[in-house]
Design goal:
554 residues; alpha+beta; 7-stranded antiparallel beta sheet; 5-stranded antiparallel beta sheet; globular; Hydantoinase_B; Acetophenone carboxylase delta subunit
Amino acid sequence: MTETFAGHFDAVDIGILWSRIVSIADEMASALVRTSFSTMVRESGDFSVMLFDGQARFLAQGAVGVPSFTGTGPSTIKGILDIIPASDLRDGDVVITNDPWIGTGHVYDINVLKPVFHKGRIVGYCLTVSHLADVGGGPGYGADARDVYEEGFSLPPIKLFQEGVLNSFVVDFFKRNVRFEDLVLGDLYSNVASCNVGAQGLCDILAEYALDDVAEVADGIFALTHSAITEQLKTVPKGTFEAVLPVEGVNGVPEIRLQVAVTVDEGGFHYDFTGTGPIVNRGVNVPICYTRAYCYFCFKVLVAPDIPNNQAVIDFVTLAAPDNCILNALRPNPTGARHIFGHYVAPLVFGALAEALPGEVQADSGMIFQVNLRGRSQLGRDFSYIYFTPGGYGAFSDLDGRSALPGPSNMIGGPVEVWEEDTGCFFLRKELLPDTGGAGEFQGGNGQIFALRNDTGRVVNGAFMASRTRLAARGFRGGSPGAHRRIAVDGVLTDPKARVELAPGAVIEVEDSGGGGFGDPAARSPERIRSDLRRGLVSRDWVDRNYPAQARDL
């Protein structure tokens, strides 16, 4: 018998409308990508789009988007409405902010919120988030700031549009405070266009179904989600599971301790980060909003991987962290490269739950390397772009990790041709790096190697943001760790969180880290090893060292 909800929709109706709402979010993402000016959005996917109902409850996200932005979105809308309440919003308003503690954890992301009006009242909200090329400040995006003020301006929630009229003060503020006006304002308006697409789509559904708002549909979506997750939680072992993970630190702090206790019960997951090390005086600290986002991510992938994300998923998650531990940095601590430590929330949690959920967790991944280059191309165009390269993906209990696949974030490296055209910095090589994944019954993914030369004829400023140069990606349940990351400029090894001046002709060479293996290497099948050898993923010498028993029969 079909389940019926309050009102006139049954579960089938709710499922159809749910899919329609998700498709609107996908249209928002498409609009943002197609109209964006910077490669961070257009090529690398450094954005997210979300829909909320009239009560600011999370309805849907676009299929393309980064988990950190999707995870911070629900607290972002709350933070905005705390300052500009719904009663002060009018049809045609658009609110923006890049406040790290309201938004995504650093100043470089712009959050754009549009209330959706139907029949004279708010029935929903569209929220988009994307990385901006510049927000003023000192040397620009990187890990070397000493406080948040050096990193750029922090704009509290303010109306960019008031009842459809552009706020010229805000536009002038950007023009006077950013280095790359066209890129920044172009991407800002792209976010607005995306919100407009979402608002129109939501209003179209209401008109088609003769609804006054989406509250009944939202309640149905949340009820179906809650029921499905409650059933799934019955299969998850209950108790408190703990882990400690050392992470390579910054100058003067060689290692930083991350610690979590995950309590699993019928109500979901509670994360307690007591024992985590303190903040540091570099721009790698993590506001709680970003930590919370990866707590949501871990719950989602472990318990509800096949359910479209919405409020009822994240309602199963709570967390606590001591003030000014590195995973709950308070203002005004610098947070520019908060992803370097924030991404470690996932392997920390997977390590805690490795015995409870061995079939669901993942061995450590090689993590993402980021370099932010700022300069002027041979054609005289100023640029400020991030290039992302991933290490190897961690293996699972029944699956090899993919080579050069990001995790836990899902940034896209982007075509080298686009990068070369926009910056005038050319790739000398970019290829998979054999023998860098960790051995195991299931093998970690390989990293990659690339070399990038400054061919602009001018000095280019580079900021590295990376890890895994000293502490490799761990293997799980007997699997071996992946290889370390190596970063060099003109052949000289370089601090993975350094800012450097690249002279004309200077070459950056990066060997990305491999993912950890899963399970005893002695259990890996000879057939898989033969396949790895044929595809060039491993060398014969590496096989002899890591799979000696199987090597004798190859």
